[in-house]
């Protein structure tokens, strides 16, 4: 293993702030390292921050441990710094960076593109560790970027460097027949236990139990989601000292449309008054731009027809890990009546039965935040949804609901082996082909054919009674009468195949679904339940979700989400031309 020791001066950041008491002192990191990997000189990015080069002299390439290169082109909105240059690793390689003790943000920047004749980074597969923690395992930046809305990838971690440790060892290890690469590395110190001590009340509520949860100094975290509720993206330059990005929650908020109702989501901004940060909630927790917006729901037209309504967000995450869910609130109603009380549910479990933002914060315009721990069960490789619901306490004839939720952060905690890596991607090329095929599948006929083949390959033998119990918990079991209602008496046929007919329909929340009604089957139905079980265990960010099933006498059906991008046979026909 080659180890390259970086002698880089830490950059002290002086940040001017305008908030209340306690904000200024809390937002000055003691050290910031911005490393532009593969660069030959120090360069500033578009925000004015200076990134240092990662090589001491031109002789670094002589041992073939790593070598720099430049991107053949930069797609919009990829910036010159730090994505134009790259450092490529043919073998295991370690950056050793001298740091002061404490908790650190570690942000890794990847731009999976072609770098001259040296590397097609879209096909790279590698692992990353830091001080004994496994951050990324068999990681494919190409697949990750393809599944997102941006051509580059930023992975953020929170790592403790405590005790006698004064070095942060960041190691890249290519998978067999592959190369590793990195474009930029950020290391930012943070206030002690900013993400591990608990919310403004110093508590982390363990969802599903009656007690609190503690995060000790041997735990590393990965930021999975950080969103600005109801507002636009908040860039790192707007987050003084911590340099966090806060994308909009538009991709995870659930649009709830009900027939014959006027229920909808509405964004409201309250930025006329100054926010008052406190010692319990200093400005380093979240910037003003985050607390300035939150979502609300109107139900004015038909309150009696829709007494049950809520705000819901769905976050796909890796199964088998604990997650820290941080919710940021601020009562921005000023001198008006305080926000209504509401309950918080995480993963369909009550996390806080009665939340009163005004009472907890003390006054309007004072930000506060709550921390929760939840565990997502399941086998490695599955991508279940972490569900967040806010329900008004008073449901009878309620016409308007606003809760003051301004920001959401979801962080993964390492497991007992020190691992933060998600599913182990064995073949990026095969998964890339799979992704193309699945995106092309929109017709329920093509999708059903693909799923049936997949089910046949992974079918396992289990007892019928046990299967029924499991699926009643994990999946919704519909009655045949409910399917008739969803499909309007099976009036809209999407396609027909050897296994049955596929109908289009809508759930009560407006979500479009495809309902595959199998041909009348005889027997105990054990094979059908085994196939449903196999489908429920097949999960990937690019595979449509199985939503439920029907098993009622000889009537069998599967319900899954519906995509509208053309059928599989059309895709194959086009590809063969």
UniProtKB/TrEMBL annotation:
Keywords: ATP-binding, Glycoprotein, Kinase, Membrane, Nucleotide-binding, Serine/threonine-protein kinase, Signal, Transferase, Transmembrane, Transmembrane helix
Ranges for domain Protein kinase: 488-577
The keyword Transferase is annotated on this UniProt entry: yes
Signal sequence residues: 1-19
Localization annotation: Membrane
Main localization (coarse): membrane
Keyword Nucleotide-binding: yes
Pfam family, one: Malectin_like
GO annotations of cellular component type: membrane
Binding site for ATP: 516
Recorded topology in the membrane: Single-pass type I membrane protein
Transmembrane annotation, as ranges: 433-454
Protein name per its UniProtKB record: Protein kinase domain-containing protein
Organism in which the protein naturally occurs: Eruca vesicaria subsp. sativa
GO MF term list: ATP binding; protein serine/threonine kinase activity
């Amino acid at each position: 293993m080659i180890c390259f020791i970086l002698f880089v001066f830490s950059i002290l950041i002086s940040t001017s702030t305008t908030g209340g008491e306690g904000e200024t002192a809390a937002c000055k990191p003691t050290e910031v390292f911005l490393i532009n990997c593969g660069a030959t000189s120090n360069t500033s990015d578009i925000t004015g921050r200076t990134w240092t080069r990662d090589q001491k002299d031109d002789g670094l390439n002589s041992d073939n441990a790593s070598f720099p290169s430049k991107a053949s082109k930069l797609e919009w909105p990829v910036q010159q710094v730090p994505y134009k240059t790259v450092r490529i690793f043919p073998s295991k390689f370690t950056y050793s960076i001298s740091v002061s003790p404490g908790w650190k943000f570690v942000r890794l920047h990847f731009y999976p593109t072609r770098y001259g004749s040296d590397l097609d980074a879209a096909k790279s597969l590698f692992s990353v560790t830091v001080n004994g923690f496994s951050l990324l395992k068999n990681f494919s930046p190409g697949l990750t970027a393809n599944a997102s809305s941006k051509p580059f990838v930023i992975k953020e971690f929170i790592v403790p460097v405590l005790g006698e440790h004064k070095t942060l060892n960041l190691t890249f290890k290519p998978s067999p027949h592959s190369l590793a690469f990195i474009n930029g590395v950020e290391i930012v110190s943070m206030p002690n236990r900013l993400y591990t001590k608990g919310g403004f009340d110093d508590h982390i509520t363990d969802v599903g139990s009656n007690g609190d949860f503690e995060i000790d100094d041997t735990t590393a975290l990965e930021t999975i989601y950080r969103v600005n509720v109801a507002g636009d993206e908040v860039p790192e330059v707007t987050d003084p000292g911590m340099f966090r990005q806060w994308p909009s929650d538009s991709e995870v908020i659930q649009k709830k449309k009900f027939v014959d109702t006027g229920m909808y989501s509405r964004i409201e901004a309250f930025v006329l008054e100054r926010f008052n940060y406190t010692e319990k909630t200093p400005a380093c927790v979240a910037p003003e731009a985050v607390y300035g917006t939150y979502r609300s729901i109107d139900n004015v037209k038909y309150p009696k027809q829709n007494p049950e309504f809520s705000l819901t967000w769905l976050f796909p995450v890796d199964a088998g890990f604990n997650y820290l869910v941080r919710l940021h609130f601020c009562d921005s109603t000023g001198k008006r009546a305080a926000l209504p009380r509401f309950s918080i549910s995480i993963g369909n479990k009550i996390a806080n039965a009665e939340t009163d933002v005004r009472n907890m914060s003390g006054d309007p315009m004072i930000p506060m935040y709550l921390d929760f721990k939840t565990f997502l069960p399941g086998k490695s490789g599955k991508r279940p949804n972490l569900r967040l619901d806010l329900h008004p306490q008073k449901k009878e004839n309620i016409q308007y609901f606003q809760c003051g939720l301004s920001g959401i952060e979801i962080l993964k905690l390492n497991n007992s082996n020190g691992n933060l890596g998600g599913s182990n991607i064995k073949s990026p090329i095969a998964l890339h082909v799979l992704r193309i095929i699945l995106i092309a599948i929109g017709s329920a006929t093509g999708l059903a054919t693909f799923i049936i083949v997949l089910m046949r390959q992974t079918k396992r033998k289990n007892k019928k009674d046990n299967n029924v119990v499991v699926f009643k918990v994990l999946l919704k079991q519909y009655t045949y009468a409910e399917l008739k209602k969803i499909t309007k008496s099976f009036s809209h046929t999407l396609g027909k195949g050897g296994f049955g007919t596929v109908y289009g329909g809508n759930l009560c929340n407006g979500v479009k679904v495809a309902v595959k009604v199998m041909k009348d089957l005889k027997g105990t139905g054990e094979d059908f339940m085994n196939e449903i079980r196999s489908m429920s265990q097949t999960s990937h960010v690019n595979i449509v979700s199985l939503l439920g099933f029907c098993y009622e006498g000889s009537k069998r059906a599967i319900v899954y989400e519906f995509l509208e991008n053309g059928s599989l046979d059309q895709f194959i026909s086009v590809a063969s031309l």
